[in-house]
Amino acid sequence: MEEKVLVLDIDGTLTNSQKEISPATRQGIINTLKRGHRVILASGRPTPGMRRYEKELELEKYGGYLLSFNGGRIVECRTGEIVYQRTLPLTMIPSLYRFAEDHGCGLLTYFGDQIISAFEPDEYALLESRINHMPIKVVEDFRSYVDFDINKCLVTAPADRAPELERQLQERYGDRASVYRSEPFFIEIMPQNVDKATSLDRMLSTVGLTRENAVCCGDGFNDISMIRYAGLGVAMGNAQPAVKEAADFITGTNDEDGLVTVIDDFILTE
């Protein structure tokens, strides 16, 4: 049996519209693990925001991985060890702060189990807090407060303004960081050349596997890199059109247990 690596985005892929893993999807993933295949949760979420699903899928028991911050950090669930990490240059913080202040955007980063906010939280920052079950700490001077290693910053803005802000951020920081939207209202500021595919490639090489072993499933803009990278790239039925264009296979939606089809047809049948 050829070992497979099932790589799953969380929001809109692993979870349904209620942010829950359905019983059928959970059982399919457990069956995958019991058959000796690997499972990686790959998300833009911070690591603490992924722990709930790590526990539900028993990844510590079976040996899975958390690829968090869109690839900025990879943690082995069994040991808790950080096996790969990239951080943003702290020299960017003052100018990022000025950009957010000038354009009326939100600006967030992460420390431990807290979200650190430069300003009073907008509705998108509050959504990030709810999704990840992490409290927001508003700091008086973001520029001096952030003196620790960070895997990403998140700029928040309404969906109708975010594309233009994304373009400006790419122009300003493209030589030092990767800038892209993970949601219509979330603009990720990541270490340069960090995305889900790059970090996944690094991890697979350390365990003796290749991209041909990977089945990568997602629905959002930040999933395109790993979907194109994978031996089999899967877009959910609810995926953005650009994600579907990049995929080898389109499955059902996250509310139709689309992952079960992928597991049954491409992993457990082999």
The gist of it:
It contains twelve helices and 14 strands. It is α/β, with parallel strands linked by helices and 270 residues long. The protein folds into two domains: 5-85 and 194-266, Rossmann fold (3-Layer(aba) Sandwich), CATH 3.40.50.1000; 90-191, Hypothetical Protein, Haloacid Dehalogenase-like Hydrolase, Chain: A, domain 2.
Helix/strand layout:
Layout: E1 5-8, H1 10-14, H2 23-34, E2 38-42, H3 51-56, H4 59-62, E3 65-68, E4 73-76, E5 82-85, H5 93-103, E6 106-111, E7 114-117, H6 123-132, E8 136-138, H7 142-145, E9 153-156, H8 162-173, E10 177-183, E11 186-191, H9 196-206, E12 214-218, H10 224-229, E13 232-235, H11 241-246, E14 249-250, H12 258-266
Parallel strand pairs: 1-2, 1-12, 2-3, 7-8, 12-13, 13-14
Antiparallel strand pairs: 3-4, 4-5, 6-7, 6-9, 9-11, 10-11
Helix pairs in contact: 2-12
Written account of the structure:
The chain is globular. It has helices at residues 10-14, 23-34, 51-56, 59-62, 93-103, 123-132, 142-145, 162-173, 196-206, 224-229, 241-246, 258-266, and strands spanning 5-8, 38-42, 65-68, 73-76, 82-85, 106-111, 114-117, 136-138, 153-156, 177-183, 186-191, 214-218, 232-235, 249-250. Helix content is 36%, strand content 23%. Helix 11 links the parallel strand 13 (232-235) and strand 14 (249-250). The model has no long low-confidence stretch (mean pLDDT 95). With 270 residues, it is of the alpha/beta class. It folds into two domains: 5-85 and 194-266, HAD superfamily/HAD-like (Rossmann fold, 3-Layer(aba) Sandwich); 90-191, Hypothetical Protein, Haloacid Dehalogenase-like Hydrolase, Chain: A, domain 2. The chain has twelve helices and 14 strands. The strands form two sheets. Strands 5-4-3-2-1-12-13-14 form an eight-stranded mixed sheet, with helices on both faces. Strands 8-7-6-9-11-10 form a six-stranded mixed sheet, sandwiched between helices.
